[in-house]
Amino acid sequence: MKKSAKKSRTIVNGLSPIEVEIMQVIWRDGKVTVRAVHEELLENGYIPYTTIMAAMNNLSLKGILKQNRENKAYVYSAAISNTKVANQIIDSVIDRILGGSKNPILRHLLKIKDEAELEELLKLKEKL
Asked: Is pTM beyond 0.85 here?
């Protein structure tokens, strides 16, 4: 149960803007050092090295990053995919904000304007 409490906190909070930028680099490049991420993010404006390092350490503590401590410079890689992070955040919104109702999310994603149209689609799905 303790593990799910940590998972819920991570999911509910989602990712901060800096964490998203870091994860985009890692999902694209695979294995990276803090320095490599810092150098890339410098192109978007100055961010202190220690801020990147702290954010990557926090992502590791949240279980989103793997941290390889074998070398002098830690090497980080994604512990979970971007799709899984997105799914967990959406599940959290459904459970914690929408009280378990998927209808508002479905309407948003499918650009459905009224409940009747959504119900019609759900009935079609049941027939499949």
From this structure: no
